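To start, an entry.
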Amino acid sequence: MEFLHTFNLTIFQWSWFFVGALMIGFSKTGISGFLILVIPILADVFGGRESTGIILPMLIVGDLFAVWYYHRHTEWSNIKKLLPWTVVGLALGLTVGKYINDSQFKTLIAIMVLICLIILVYTEMKGERLNVPKKFWFYALIGILVGFASMIGNVAGPIFTLYLLASDFKKNDFMGTTAWFFLIINLAKVPLQIFVWHNITMKSILLAGGMIPAITIGALVGVAIIKKLDDKFFRNIVIAITALATIKLFI
């Protein structure tokens, strides 16, 4: 209890923080769409820019679980091809995020989540009929969008998925490449958020450390479910709830 009182969070904030940690672990090894639900909820609870500093250390913990489990299935050539453009997107997001207030930051997070929701719905509707361009301009655009969305709201997953779909990835290669890519990107964001945005502190690192058991539980459940469950129903639920959470950020 001493640990809990140190951070001056309400029961409401602790509850959502714990749920968010479970979902982060679950999304990293199981159904990746669950992460998009966490972002608008925690942004509404903690504030836009501050929430990204709280979430990022937890995401890195989740990334480590995912890399540990899927590390044998990684296409490094595809990661290297996208990284330079992603760095451009990170720089753009870092600059924009530094010069807007928290209300504008939350609105920008909501816009990025909304874009990702549209992508999720579109890919869900198209299914195997989805045709993604395999052109240089498409990879460059995706890289910049991934970097920007990751920097502003940690919501680049659905955009990165489009890139992997364009590369005809199989299931395990998909999970392994995603795990390594976001571990690299999220680690790169740490010094940027410490020294430019000043929203990663010892407090947020300790909070993430305290949530390791919850992230671990979520990750283990994700590993178990990804093997057995048709996640279509769950993705639809995630899309519906995330849409409501995103609307709340605009209000």
Remarks:
- The chain has a mean pLDDT of 84.
- The chain has twelve helices and no strands.
- The first helix runs from residue 2 to 5.
